[in-house]
């Protein structure tokens, strides 16, 4: 799989990740790593784990996630 953003520019760069938002392949230059809180059931509610998980986003989805 090649990076979607590089491919639209005419380059064939191998993808190293898949966007969590849209599913597009991304190279290391077009990917953004963002923390994601992990929730687990705890009695009648939920509690967050002390460590965050990692989620990868393309530039378009990262901008939409932050907005």
From TrEMBL:
Origin: domain of life: Bacteria
InterPro entries per UniProt: UCP037465_Znf (IPR017211)
Name of protein: DUF2180 family protein
Originating species: Actinacidiphila rubida
Taxonomic lineage of the native organism: Bacteria, Bacillati, Actinomycetota, Actinomycetes, Kitasatosporales
